[in-house]
User: Fold Guanine nucleotide-binding protein subunit gamma from Chelydra serpentina.
Amino acid sequence: VPGNMAQDLTEKELLKMELDQLKKEVKNERQMVSKTGKELKEYIESMAAEDPLLKGVPEDKNPFKEKGGCIIS
Assistant:
């Protein structure tokens, strides 16, 4: 059974990967949750009318509609 990738690496290699990831993350611009949360809520509300999970999908446009029923005898 092939091992987990993390198990195949030395501790030094794992620490280097973690350091590289942290170096990338520190460059990300950060914003206040109070601002981004409000923007996200407004976006979700503005797109709700087009959201198939909220309004549903017409039967004739549903690619996952069952083709036939199940008969148990």
Summary: The radius of gyration is 24 Å. The chain has four helices and no strands.
